[in-house]
TrEMBL record:
Annotated organism of origin: Asticcacaulis aquaticus
2Fe-2S ferredoxin-type domain ranges (all copies): 236-321
Protein's UniProt keywords contain rRNA processing: no
Protein name: PDR/VanB family oxidoreductase
Keywords: 2Fe-2S, Flavoprotein, Iron, Iron-sulfur, Metal-binding, Oxidoreductase
Ranges where the FAD-binding FR-type domain occurs: 1-107
Signal peptide stretch: none
Keyword Metal-binding tagged: yes
UniProt-listed Gene3D superfamilies: 3.10.20.30, Nucleotide-binding domain of ferredoxin-NADP reductase (FNR) module, Translation factors
C-alpha cells in the first residue's frame, strides 16, 4: 500500500558514488500536510521504477512529522530498489511511499537497552537511540562496519551520542577482521536489558544464537531479507471467513499467489516475510510460519500469519479475510 506522495528535499551522500557501500540519505518531505507520526523502528515502503516496492527504515527522530529520512546503501545484489534510488532519484523528485509500519518495537521503559547494528542496519537503531536519548533512558550502542571511512551515519551519530554520554562501541573489519563480540555483549548487560539488532543475515543469526539464554521477549531484531524459504509444499485448503471462498493451495504456490490467481488481492509488499504488510488473522488451522516479522510467542499462538511466505501444517486454514 503506497498512498503518500513525498518530495525529495535533500540527498546527502557518503562513500564513492556508484560503488557498493555508497550510502545516500534521503530527506523526504510532504508538499502540504504533515506526515503520519511514526515510532522508533518503523519503516516505509518506497515505490521504485516499474512499481518495484522496497522497505526502508526511518532513521530520523521519532516525533518528527515534517519529514521522513531514509538511508539507502548501494547493494551489488540489488534487485533494483537501491540502484534506482542511487542512479535515478534526485532532489525535487516526487516519490510514492506507504505510511510507516512498525514490527520492530522499542520497549521504552526497559531498565537498560543495548542497540547492536551492522552496516546499513544502523538506521532503525539510530531512530531508537534518538528516542531513548529524548526519554532520558539508559542504553549502550554497538556498531560494526567494514571500515570507519564507509560506516553509515557514523559522523552523524558519534557527536550526538557523545554529548548524551551514551557508551558507543565500534568495530571495523578493516582494523583486522574483528567482529562484534556478541557473547560478551549479552554476558555483560545488566539484568532486565532489552536487546535490539539489525544487520546482515550472518550477524542476526549469530545474535539470536548468542541471546538464546535470555528471557523470552528480550531479544529483538529485524532482518534485511527473509531468513527462511517460503512454504511451497501446498496440499492444503484456505478458506476466507468473510466470503466463504475455499481455495486449494497447490505445490509451488504461496497462499498469496493462490489468492491472487483467483482475483483476490491481499495487501502485500516485500513478498519475502520481512515487512508485515500481508499479515492475516488465522481463525482455524495451524500455520507453518516462515516470516521474520512475528515473535516466537506470536508464531506459537498461531493467531496471525504472513501469507506471502507461510503455509499450513494442517489440512485447512481459515483466514480472517
Ligand atoms: S508482504 Fe512483506 S511480510 Fe508478506
Amino acid at each position: 500500500m503506497t498512498d503518500l506522495t513525498v518530495r525529495v528535499h535533500d540527498i546527502a551522500e557518503t562513500g564513492v558514488p556508484g560503488e557498493a557501500g555508497c550510502v545516500r540519505v534521503f530527506d523526504l518531505r510532504p508538499d502540504s500536510d504533515a506526515l503520519p507520526a511514526f515510532e522508533a523502528g518503523a519503516h516505509i515502503d518506497v515505490v521504485a521504477r516499474d512499481g518495484l516496492v522496497r522497505q526502508y527504515s526511518l532513521m530520523n527522530a521519532p516525533g518528527e512529522t515534517h519529514r521522513y529520512v531514509v538511508a539507502v546503501a548501494l547493494d551489488a545484489q540489488s534487485r533494483g530498489g537501491s540502484k534506482y534510488l542511487h542512479d535515478w532519484v534526485e532532489a525535487g523528485d516526487a516519490l510514492m511511499i506507504s505510511p510507516p509500519r512498525c514490527h520492530f518495537h522499542l520497549i521504552e521503559d526497559a531498565p537498560f537497552s543495548v542497540l547492536i547494528a551492522g552496516g546499513i542496519g544502523v538506521t532503525p537503531l539510530w531512530a531508537m537511540a534518538q528516542r531513548l536519548i529524548a526519554l532520558g533512558r539508559p542504553f549502550a550502542f554497538h556498531f560494526g562496519a567494514r571500515s570507519e571511512a564507509t560506516a553509515p551515519l557514523l559522523d552523524l551519530m558519534r557527536p550526538q551520542l557523545d554529548v548524551a554520554g551514551v557508551p558507543f562501541y565500534t568495530v571495523f573489519e578493516s582494523d583486522g577482521g574483528a567482529r562484534l563480540d556478541l557473547g560478551r555483549i549479552f554476558a555483560e548487560a545488566p539484568e532486565g536489558t532489552h536487546f535490539y539488532a539489525c544487520g546482515p543475515a550472518g550477524m542476526i543469526d549469530a545474535y539470536i544464537a548468542a541471546g538464546a539464554g535470555c528471557p523470552a521477549g528480550k531479544v529483538h531484531y529485524e532482518r534485511f531479507s527473509g531468513a527462511e524459504a517460503p512454504a511451497l509444499d501446498g496440499g492444503f485448503e484456505v478458506e476466507l471467513a468473510r466470503t466463504g471462498g475455499r481455495y486449494a493451495v497447490e505445490a509451488g504456490k504461496t497462499i498469496l499467489e493462490t489468492l491472487k490467481d483467483h482475483g483476490i488481492n491481499v495487501p502485500h509488499s516485500c513478498a519475502e516475510g520481512i515487512c508485515g504488510a500481508c499479515e492475516c488473522g488465522v481463525l482455524e488451522g495451524t500455520p507453518d510460519h516462515r516470516d521474520s516479522v512475528l515473535t516466537d510467542a506470536e508464531k506459537a499462538a498461531g493467531r496471525t500469519m504472513m501469507v506471502c511466505c507461510s503455509g499450513a501444517k494442517s489440512a485447512r486454514l481459515v483466514l480472517d479475510l
